[in-house]
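User: quick one - fold this with fe (ii) ion bound?
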Amino acid sequence: MNPERERELLARLEAPDAQRPGPLGARSMKNAASAYSDPERFQRELERLFRGRPLLVGLSAECARPGDFLSANLGGVPVFVVRQGDGSLRGFVNACRHRAATLVEGCGHAGRAIVCPYHGWTYQLDGALRARPGAEPGFDDVDRAGLSLHPIAVGEGYGLVFARAAAGPPVTADAALCGAERELAHHDLASWVPIETRTFEVPINWKLVIDTFTEPYHIPWLHKASIAPHYYFDRWIFDAFGPHGRFIGLRKTLAAELEKPPGEPRALLPHATTQYLLLPNAVLVHQIDHFELWRLQPLAVDRTRVSTSVIAPRAPVSERERAYFVKNLDVLLGVTNSEDFPMMARIQQNLASGAVPEVVYGKMEPALVHFHESVAAALAES
Ligand code: FES
Ligand SMILES: [Fe+2]
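Assistant: Sure. Structure tokens for the protein plus fe (ii) ion:
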């Protein structure tokens, strides 16, 4: 976020008419319990949101060198992106053209070719089938040229990699970010360094993972033994970027910053947890001196795979510095995995019980309302 933007957001907090709690959104909203529990709706979400739109699959830094790859799952479609010799990125369905074996797992380095682990079919980084080792005569009536990997659309910018499973126009980071790029550009994320990623599964609908990040209202209650002393629950900053949002949670250290005499330089970000909610699958969080990236993959209407990464501004120069960033991840997941997600698991059960018709998102939960309105709008698109 550039300094002018930071000043503008600080000014909003000091406006004489600044509301507490607030600033409130335009309206409250009710959402049917079935939005979280109906398998048919879940399938539509996979199709419209997770396959039909560009998703944030990861960071440029996770696939920086030629031959580096990064795999993902886009609404049930396994894909990977791979860095080409000329520095560009290409994306493919992550399945061999022989008998559909998975080609690569996680992220890593393929060298100059991608070799299928089942029978060794070998693909160039551009997806062309180069060889069927030891077996050419056994397939000489099947043309190699027609057995390139199936391509998918990929776009990259601001250190972020986007891909879309379904056919459609080219993917660009600018179009995918819907204006959030104007703030993210300032961080130059392409030069940052991923330190560690942890992946786990939670027994909740994917939207409950996002809901977790959208309001501070729960902090004094659910987090009274952990982060409640440090965060305001009744003041925040929220802005929409198309279907995405940027929600800023505010630390109580902000009060001293706002009391500085006029003319003294002031900063927002040291007192902020800035969350870019990138519909549908990612939350990119800036915290003082590092980023966290949450990526989620819906597995079933009530099951979601979650990956959490911590990203540092440069490669750690010592084990101690590395341990500092890992500790941040420990603390973060300590709170979400012992406080937020267990609560969400019980909510999932309640919503699936049939005894709860709907939930209410208040005007004091504007990021939550915007998220669910955006999901509903995407499902309504023809
Ligand atoms: S499935 Fe890949 S080589 Fe057989
Ligand atoms: Fe929380």
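One thing worth noting: The two ends are 35 Å apart (CA to CA).
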